[in-house]
UniProtKB/TrEMBL annotation:
Signal sequence segment: none
Catalytic activity: Cleavage of an N-acetyl or N-formyl amino acid from the N-terminus of a polypeptide
Cellular component terms (Gene Ontology): cytoplasm
Origin species: Serilophus lunatus (silver-breasted broadbill)
Encoding gene, per UniProt annotation: Apeh
Official protein name in the record: Acylamino-acid-releasing enzyme
Record's keyword annotation contains Cytoplasm: yes
Pfam families attached to this UniProt entry: APEH_N, Peptidase_S9
Keywords associated with the record: Cytoplasm, Hydrolase
Acylamino-acid-releasing enzyme N-terminal domain residues: 12-451
Annotated spans, Disordered: 177-196
Length: 731
């Protein structure tokens, strides 16, 4: 009988406990009601997600709360009833009045073998389901998009129509040699003959359809669709130019047409997930004439358009095209009636305490406008924390709303009639639900946050933020005097607290950031007995655009030296065991981990990498983001450019595979079979190179998982294998 290592039970129990903390995904405020005594109250509907290890899936559940207020402060708030699981909901949206709710639901076929999953669009009133429309049977389009890149479910202001995005219907394709049964046709019509529009096309069976890359591999040609609720009829919107892929759509004022973001897909599609640098613009398509009008500049990248409550203004985020995939963004505003566009907030070159740090967010909150249609709410990284700001769109002035709150990671979930709902967490405290009333303009800093759903802090984790200044010889000649941060978690009690081993985790991206919020892996590793160092090297978001711009052309040196400097500094200044240091990194964090064990082999005793970039030169031809390979190497990207030998050399020169001969630390590789961003061939290339050199290595291959390795089973198995690998090699 194979022996179970003594710590396996203990580790799995720890993971089971910590992975049960739910995440808070969305919130929606119901209509405002008045009590017989004149007080106001409303319901708050929240959605949470949680890992169910027994079912090996992420489940969703909802919980309702009641909030009583007098317009200036919250008088009472508390839960109404218990949680209940939500099944099959892909999208849901309350109508503007709050009296109706639309739901996109997936339903498994009755006979699992024969019938594929169906999609239904439902409309609910306060007490029952009033419509259930089988979109799959209507067959006007392919699957409805439920992602947060293109997807939307938008009510018309009149609450008579719904707008959503779906895959364009493809003609049925068949073999050149398909034999036809002469009797009954495939149609449900009485004629017994196939309908004309369903006649199959020969020769199209194996045509390649481009997709939008990582996590969007089923998205190719999106179309905007409108459901007439009363007539239960669906129409696909005409008039959108052929070279654009539409998404993030909503109804224009007075329901005269639809406003949407259009992404250029010529000459070919590039990966879109986490890439806020793809050419796109804001458009309006008129429902009567089908005329399509450009509302923003057409040489930028735009996303997250949000219409003000008075239907006069649209705010949206804007970046330059190409360059770093994520960066400091501009906030722009389009006036619907004057057709004038203004810049509300510019790009911020350097973060300074007390000043607005810049916008570094994937999206604006779905509901972000204050009731005055003048101020908006957003959350953004401010160095290694995330904070909530209110922005006056008329003056561009900003106020920090979380100044008096605890340090950590704040996110806006929604704001409606100036009731503000937010999520807060820290590295030792799982997400909690907070509410506040937005004070009048000029008094925003007085916002009083009330905790509506608490989460007990996880014991035995202490954390702090360290700031580091590179030595003169490591300064960037173009962007001098930049500093950076690291978040250090450490066990606060027990034998491990005295001098724990250190696990170093650089983030991926490279243009992303660790904010001081709840993260399952670092918290769990800390509870196992490791100190965990989360490094926000130069190039991270939240430190100003200069920091972002300093890294392209310097990957493999500047970022590597920043992490090493940070490791040497904390080993010197903190009570840590310098003889037991390991690396854990994914994506660009894996790129850095592989560099560090090659460039500084004496520092590290073990290494774990998840979907790492190993060889930029071999990645460029296989990834969904070839522009990343050139940009981060410091080379210009153009769709028709072919790298010359010098450029291939430069890509190879900056890659960790170059240092593989110096690696001694045992390496655990974890690869997602369906990763389109950093294809698993990258990790395999490293695995073979290590095996050929006799370096102890182990490879875990996760089918059905992409770049994030976020499947419940892969994530749980991944933690167990990481913990066991580190315990084994740091003994």
């Amino acid at each position: 009988v194979p022996q179970v290592p003594p710590r396996v039970e203990e580790l799995s129990e720890l993971y089971r406990e910590l992975s049960q903390h739910p995440g808070l995904s969305s919130a929606c405020l119901g209509p405002e009601l008045t009590t017989q005594y004149g007080g106001k109250y409303c319901s708050l509907y929240t959605e949470w997600s949680q890992r169910d290890l027994a079912r090996a899936e992420n489940i969703k559940f909802c919980r309702q709360y009641l909030i009583f207020h007098d317009g200036a402060s919250i008088v009472y708030s508390g839960p109404a009833g218990t949680c209940s699981e939500i099944k099959g909901e892909l999208l849901s949206r309350e109508s503007p009045s709050g009296t109706l709710k639309a739901v996109l639901r997936k339903v498994s076929g009755k006979d699992k073998e024969k019938e594929k999953e169906k999609q239904f669009l439902e409309v609910w009133d306060q007490n029952r389901k009033v419509k259930s429309i089988d979109l799959t049977a209507l067959d006007k389009h392919g699957s409805v998009y439920d992602d947060d890149q293109f997807g939307c479910l938008a009510w018309s202001h009149s609450e008579t129509h719904l707008l959503y995005v779906a895959e364009k219907k493809r003609p049925k394709a068949e073999s050149f040699f398909q034999s036809k049964a002469p009797e009954m046709g495939t149609s449900e019509e009485d004629t017994g003959h196939p309908k004309k529009e369903d006649a199959a096309v020969k020769g199209e069976q194996f045509v390649y359809h481009e997709d939008w890359g990582e996590t969007l591999s089923t998205c190719s040609v999106p179309v905007l669709c409108i459901l007439d609720i009363e007539g239960s009829s669906i129409s696909v919107l005409e008039g959108i130019p052929e070279h654009l892929s539409p998404g993030q759509a909503f109804w224009s004022p007075e329901d005269t047409g639809v406003v949407f973001v259009g992404w250029w897909h010529e000459p070919f599609r590039l990966g879109l997930r986490h890439c806020t640098n793809r050419r796109s613009a804001l458009f309006y398509v008129d429902l009567t004439g089908g005329k399509c009008e450009l509302l923003s500049e057409d040489t930028k990248a735009v996303w997250s358009p949000r219409l003000s409550p008075d239907s006069c203004r649209i705010v949206y985020l804007e970046n330059n095209v190409l360059g770093p995939h994520q960066q400091c963004s501009r906030l722009r505003m389009y006036d619907w009636y004057t057709k004038h566009t203004s810049t509300v907030l510019e790009v911020v070159p350097r973060q300074e305490w007390g000043a607005f740090p810049g916008i570094y967010c994937g999206a604006l909150p779905g509901m972000c406008w204050a009731a005055d249609s003048r101020r908006i709410l957003l959350d953004t990284a401010q160095r290694s924390q995330q904070d909530v700001f209110v922005v006056d769109t008329a003056t561009g002035s900003t106020t920090l709303l979380t100044a008096d709150g605890p340090r950590g990671s704040w996110s806006v979930l929604t704001i409606d009639r100036d009731l503000l709902v937010a999520r807060f967490s820290t590295p030792s405290c799982p997400p909690v639900l907070k509410v506040a009333i937005l004070p009048a303009a000029g008094h925003e800093a007085q916002a009083q946050w009330i905790c509506l759903q608490d989460a007990p802090p996880v014991p035995n984790i202490s954390w702090g933020i360290h700031t580091l200044q590179p030595p003169p010889e490591q300064e960037n000649p173009q962007y001098g005097a930049l500093d950076f941060d690291a978040i250090l978690l450490r066990p606060s009690e027990g034998p491990a607290a005295k001098k724990p081993p250190l696990v170093v985790m650089p983030h991926g991206g490279p243009h992303s950031v660790f904010t001081a919020g709840w993260m399952l892996y670092p918290a769990a590793l800390c509870r196992v007995g490791f100190a965990v160092l989360l490094v926000n090297y130069r190039g991270s978001l939240g430190f100003g655009q200069d920091s972002v711009a300093s890294l392209p052309g310097n990957v493999g040196t500047q970022d590597v030296h920043d992490v090493q400097l940070c490791v040497e500094r904390v080993l010197r200044e903190e009570a840590l065991d310098a003889s037991r240091v390991a690396l854990v990194g994914g994506s660009h964090g894996g790129f850095l981990a592989c560099h560090l064990i090659g460039q500084f082999p004496d520092t590290y005793r073990a290494c774990v990498v998840r979907n790492p970039v190993v060889n930029i030169a071999s990645m460029v031809a296989t990834t969904d983001i070839p522009d990343w390979c050139l940009t981060e190497t410091g080379l210009p990207y153009a769709p028709d450019a072919l790298p010359d030998p010098a450029q291939w050399t430069e890509m190879l020169h900056k890659s960790p595979i170059r240092y593989v001969d110096r690696v001694r630390a045992p390496v655990l590789l974890m690869l997602g079979e369906d990763d389109l961003r950093v294809p698993p061939k990258q990790g395999l290339e490293y695995y073979r190179a290590l095996k050929a050199r006799g370096v102890p290595t182990r490879l875990l291959w996760y089918p059905g998982n992409n770049h994030a390795l976020a499947g419940v089973e892969a994530e749980a198995d991944g933690f167990m294998n990481i913990a066991l690998w580190l315990l084994k090699h740091l003994e």
